[in-house]
Amino acid sequence: ATMPSTVGMMDEGYFVGRREILEWLNQTLLLNLEKIEETASGCVALQLMDACYPGKVSIQKLNWSAKNDYEYVQNYKLLQTAFDKFKVDKYIPVDKIVRAKYQDNLEFMQWFKRYVELTGITENYDPVLARSKGKGAPGCSMRALDIQKISRPVPSRKNTATSVASVNSSVNNVPIANNRAANKPKRTVRSNRSNTSREMSENVEKAKALEDLGQAYLKIEELNEMSEMFRKERDFYFDKLKRVELLLQEKEEAKDCDPDFDAFYKILYATEEESSKKEETNNNTAASAEVDSDFLKDASDFL
């Protein structure tokens, strides 16, 4: 979609107010945003892209715990990559948005709301699970769940009036003794309320489990990165030692041996046990030298 030609400054999307934007974001992504400025990090924007194209943007690389504008920039690089991938011709005023100014962030979210409405969110999209692998990703918001329940469609007045009339007609046509049964739906309402509370409790537990899972994924990713770093460092020094060994062998074959070559070979081919003994000997020698130095200093002071 080429959005600037579709969403211009006079588009109805730019006339949506702050409160409606916040409610829409919280409901769509199950967040607990209270200010438009909280979208300045770029995380919300990229997750909206993920909602339209799940699994096709790098949402797991988002830093939800970012606090500074230079950290925000990394998130916006991911967003720009997503824009390029899906050919979204929209300029991102990063230098303005990262300052967390109200008007700049409001206009960007107004544009994004219109974009999502025109593009459409994938059915059964789970925003909590989708962002769970990101650094510091928030879990499910109870407030957002409440908004979802409140925003469910309600019957129109016409349908409600028809329903009431049919109920009254039914009650008038049955014996009086049976009219007492009309109170039974109240128990059904209480049962529904109980079910709703149970569902909310289950949703909270699910959100907590997903948040824990996300933190576990994050920890595994950090350990994998550390492991990769250590592997590269090992290979780096091993390559150097290999090159030294080849150089020594070339010198030896050319009969250009130095008397110190034997010492080099001893270091290269020393076992772990031999290296440990050597290190222990060096430590003892250093400690002895330090004691001798202290003794000489004390003797000098005495004299």
Observed structural traits:
single chain; 303 residues; mainly alpha; disordered N terminus
User: Could you estimate the helical fraction of the residues in percent?
Assistant: 55-70%
Question: What structural category arises from helix and sheet content?
Answer: mainly alpha
The pLDDT mean sits at: 75
Q: Which regions contain 5 or more consecutive residues with pLDDT less than 50?
A: 1-5, 142-189
Radius of gyration from the alpha-carbon trace, in angstroms = 35 Å
User: Into which percentage range does the β-strand content fall?
Assistant: under 5%
Strand and helix order = HHHHHHHHHHHHH
Number of strands: 0
Distance between the termini: 91 Å
Q: What's the helix count?
A: 13
Shape type? elongated
> Describe the biggest sheet?
none
Structure description:
The protein has helices at residues 3-6, 18-29, 43-52, 69-85, 94-97, 102-119, 127-131, 142-150, 157-172, 176-179, 184-253, 261-268, 272-302. With 303 residues, the chain is an all-alpha fold. α3 (43-52) packs parallel to α6 (102-119). It is elongated. The N and C termini lie far apart (91 Å).
Task: Give a quick precis of the structure.
With 303 residues, this protein is mainly α. The protein is built from 13 helices and no strands.
